Hints:
It is a single chain. By secondary structure, the protein is an alpha/beta fold. It has six helices and eleven strands. It has helices at residues 19-28, 52-56, 69-82, 103-108, 124-134, 141-159, and strands at 10-15, 36-41, 61-64, 88-91, 111-115, 167-169, 172-174, 176-178, 184-186, 190-194, 199-201. The termini are close together.
Amino acid sequence: LNNKSYSDTVFVFLKKDDEKQKKVINNYLKEWNNNIIYHEIEKSTISEQMSDNEIKKITDVVLIPSDDPVFVSDIISRLHALKDSTLTIFCTENITKFNLIPHKELFELNVHFLSEHEPFYENEKYIKSFYDYFSINPQSKYVLQGYKCGTYFLNLFLENINSSSEENILGTYFKFYLQKNNFFRNEAFKLWRYDEYEINEVIQFNESQ
């Protein structure tokens, strides 16, 4: 969002009474506080709560921070039916798992998401070599995550590289920074965008913004 103008209006779609999510968004988008419009949806579909004319008035930036596939799919579908492609929509990285939403709709609505993972990265070679060596199925997310983190920090030790150097290990980007409370956090988030036939990184995005 930091590449958008502070004069833009940010329309946020939340489930009714999701105060925790609302608080997080208010803190993160404090520069936009005067330009945020919340739509708290309590009905089963957006069309039951908002008229077509209300939906057509949505402009600029839309934020849908939910990981509920039904909730997100319904909003995306309705926006696509009633809006043109002048919107910019931000979702969570789980948008890539919502198979009910056609890629064409996500492209035409200019959908973006942040993630440290390369979308749809193929792990076949890793799975085969890991199983051949350890005789353990490595497809558990904990095994895979442990392998990636272990490889990253082992590389730091053996190659004497800086923790803030960016590394890509099996489709996950690592770039650790020391936080105020004295622990390291991975901040290698990339901004991804749905293009016509694939998902691409937005190269101009600056993680430090």
